[in-house]
Amino acid sequence: LGSSPNRWPKKLAITSPIERTPRWPAPRCIGVVSRALGMAAARVMVALAVCLQVVEATEAPPLAPHDFLLPRRQLSAAANPQTKALGPLASLAGRWAGHGQNLVSLPDRRSMSQSVLVLQQAFTEELEFRDMPEVVLNRGFMPDGSGQSDQRLHGLAYTDNVVLDSVLYADPPDSRFSNKSGSSVHSENGQWLFKVTPEAEAQPWTIMRMGSIPHGTAIMAFGGFNVSDTFNATHELDMLSSQYDFPPGEHLGCGCFGRGECVQPTEFLRSQLEGLTVASFKKFQYSTQASSKGGGVVNTPFVNREVQAGDFRATFYFLEVAAGRTGPRREMLLYAQTVMFTFEGVCQGGAVSQIQWPHTIVGAFARPP
């Protein structure tokens, strides 16, 4: 505008020859600024509305937790044709209900002559498997530069709830367990996973089970499966007996506390199969043995101090039972599982020693109506 006062707009005033900053009259200044801000705010609101419409129209699919760490990679069906496959676990999806028996040995500090309580219980159990929405991706890296080897898992999330029916045996007799019918004795949730993309490993596995138990225990077990149209019940149950039953007579130096023969948990499963014709079956086996180079049983410090829970193993049978030659088939699920407890016990003669005792559970399920 130059330095001459005559060149300023008529409604501007210069207070001195040196001061060249114009001063608007206060009322007009406020009005102009208000109108300018109002128009700018309106333009911003219109722009935001347009942006929101665009975002809604092109919203990306939700990200899995690991996608925040590494970018999502879309694979074609040809590159991974089994992306959504549950493999052998597909038959387990849905609800199951049934009964079983539990045999457990617990430290009992109240008695000087016997520091162990042996307890056998009958229970009702409900088990539900739900399909996981997407394949789980574990990204890998080959250090020799040959490329990235990813692992893909798919499976079923499960919940397991057990309610006590009755106490079949307690030694010594204990009133704490005599009137607990209908109470919850076990709760567990976790996943059964199938390895969709097998890779070279020193100890290969195809299925795994992860479970969390409110006692303060978590398990991670690995294993495999078999599928067959021929089920030899006698052979299979004899194999289970060698893994899950107790030998007659003295058990690990302390005996069965006066009983001539320890309880045989798998006899319960044998009774469930009497008179049935099995058309096909799948066998699932899990273990936390150290040779798998992973997994195990993890406990809280309190549990480790009182009763150390060690190796865990489980065997499940999915059975299709035939109702005659032309009748419909029904499905059954049988299992036996055990975890080794290590605790201090008083053996014969009063000697105190560490004792290993299996906590064994057996059960039989059917599809609820």
Protein model, in words:
- This protein has about 375 residues and is α+β, with helices and mostly antiparallel strands.
- It has 2 domains: about 5-55, no CATH class; about 80-365, Calycin beta-barrel core domain (Lipocalin, Beta Barrel).
- It is about 15% helix and about 40% strand.
- The chain has helices at about 25-55, 235-245, 265-270, 300-305, and strands at about 95-105, 115-130, 135-140, 150-170, 185-195, 205-215, 215-230, 275-285, 295-300, 310-320, 330-345, 350-365.
- It has a 10-stranded antiparallel β-barrel.
- Strand 11 and strand 12 (about 350-365) form a beta hairpin.
- Helix 2 runs antiparallel to helix 3.
- The protein is globular.
- It starts with about 25 loop residues before the first helix and ends with a strand.
- InterPro entries: Calycin (IPR012674), Heme_bind_FMP (IPR047975).
Put the structure in a nutshell:
15% of the residues lie in helices and 40% in strands. It has 369 residues and is an alpha+beta fold.
Ordered list of secondary-structure elements with their pairings:
Layout: H1 26-57, E1 94-107, E2 116-131, E3 136-138, E4 151-171, E5 184-195, E6 207-213, E7 217-228, H2 233-244, H3 266-272, E8 277-287, E9 296-299, H4 301-306, E10 308-322, E11 329-346, E12 352-366
Antiparallel strand pairs: 1-2, 1-12, 2-4, 3-4, 4-5, 5-6, 6-7, 7-8, 7-9, 8-10, 10-11, 11-12
Helix pairs in contact: 2-3
Describe this protein with a few key phrases.
single chain; 369 residues; alpha+beta; Lipocalin; ten-stranded antiparallel beta barrel; 4 helices; 40% strand; disordered N terminus
